[in-house]
Write a structure and sequence with these properties.
The protein is an alpha/beta fold and about 150 residues long. The protein is built from five helices and four strands. The chain has helices at about 15-30, 50-55, 85-95, 115-125, 140-150; strands at about 35-40, 65, 100-105, 135. Helix 3 links the parallel strand 2 and strand 3 (about 100-105). The longest helix is centred in the middle third of the chain and has 14 residues, at about 85-95.
Length: about 150
């Protein structure tokens, strides 16, 4: 997996133009081993940085966009993810940049769910070879970041 580390950006996330440039440079260095990109959205934020990363990386590989659902009963300002809206915003930016992408079966789904696992299997089948997966992680929540970084691509 090719992704920024927590030492390279806050929580390994891509949220700013500077982080987008850093991630795009990382992807360019690994372009020969990247067969697809999984965009993970555990919350709402500046989704334009995702499209900036992909545009600057100049990769022509499949892109899958995943968003994590809110937890019923934890919808306070402190706990709300609102990645439902974030996914619409991220996809709108990708469309404006002319970057093709695929969506998960459900608009929001947990990265450890069986449905998302099937979506990943479908996504991997679209690639000529499945050796390297790049990930544009957009996250500000350390709790969400850990789960997504390691579970989504197992």
């Amino acid at each position: 997996m090719v992704a920024l580390t927590e030492a390279e950006s806050k929580f390994g996330a891509v949220e700013s133009r500077q982080e987008a440039r850093r991630c795009a440079d990382l992807f360019k260095r690994h372009r020969e081993t990247i067969d697809g990109i999984v965009v993970t959205l555990p919350n709402f934020g500046d989704e334009r940085a995702i499209a900036d990363t992909l545009r600057m990386a100049e990769l022509t590989v499949p892109v899958l966009v995943q968003a994590t659902p809110d937890t019923p009963g934890r919808m306070s300002i402190r706990d709300r993810r609102d990645s439902f809206c974030g996914k619409m915003s991220a996809c709108n930016n990708l469309a404006q940049y002319g970057i093709p992408y695929s969506l998960t079966t459900l608009h929001t789904e947990l990265p450890q769910s069986d449905i998302f696992r099937r979506d990943l299997e479908w996504f991997f089948q679209r690639m000529p070879r499945c050796e390297g997966i790049a990930k544009v992680a957009h996250r500000r929540d350390r709790r969400a970041a850990r789960g997504l970084q390691y579970r989504a691509l197992q």
